[in-house]
Amino acid sequence: KQEVTQIPAALSVPEGENLVLNCSFTDSAIYNLQWFRQDPGKGLTSLLLIQSSQREQTSGRLNASLDKSSGRSTLYIAASQPGDSATYLCAVKNNAGNMLTFGGGTRLMVKP
Amino acid sequence: NAGVTQTPKFQVLKTGQSMTLQCAQDMNHEYMSWYRQDPGMGLRLIHYSVGAGITDQGEVPNGYNVSRSTTEDFPLRLLSAAPSQTSVYFCASSSTYDTQYFGPGTRLTVL
User: Could you tell me if A31 and A51 are in contact, meaning their C-beta atoms sit under 8 angstroms apart?
Assistant: First the structure.
């Protein structure tokens, strides 16, 4: 059974800092990996999708990398801003089915 | 496009009552799914559908029914609500192996 872990569970940084969020998964037979953002009381917003054949994806100040063989993905946020404060979730889709398995999330606070 | 819409936003039920959570998408996506989100448990898949007329169970299907009569709609039915079903419910849709889009959620409390 696929298990997804995100470390750290919570992170507080000053504005302007570059930061890295980590995601690890136990079964490397994935189809893709997706990073989401969730604001309090809201739904999930997709940030980046990395297919299993890709190594990274970039969108603005966000860069996500994927190392399938080691079961790891990182989300890099450059020049963090208070508006980046949210919970960040990673989720993997396995080749074996349509299920998305989610990590527990990293709750990020960026202080002005 | 409205994307993925869910109704109601909030609901309070008494134990034993039944209700249907509505989900609709206007992106012509084949794949739709229901998740519940609980503190400390993360998001868990309840049921999913890969197209009209086709549904399957996810990780936590007990106590819930689904049907998919059209591409656009994927309602989730609680047959006899229990306090353990207090949660936030999210519906999602995607083209089968592409980005998943989530609705805003339904916050359900069962007393």
Answer: yes
